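Let us work through a complete example step by step.
Step 1: write down the sequence.
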Amino acid sequence: MDHPFRNAMFGGFNRQDVLTYLEQTAQEAAKHQQELESQLGQAQDTMARQDAQLSEQQEQLGLLRRENDE
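Step 2: predict the structure and record it as tokens.
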């Protein structure tokens, strides 16, 4: 695992390096989550518009079929 930690004097890692790394990783994860949630929202909006368009087209098709049957 690649990490930017310096070794501490008595074994282990420098505490501040670890805290900084965890903070940075959490911020990156939060940013990535926001981006994914935004993409999800856009996809849901697109799907809702397409569902509405499909319903409208199905209704029009039904009307045209009834007109054709008459």
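Step 3: interpret the result. The two ends are 73 Å apart (CA to CA).
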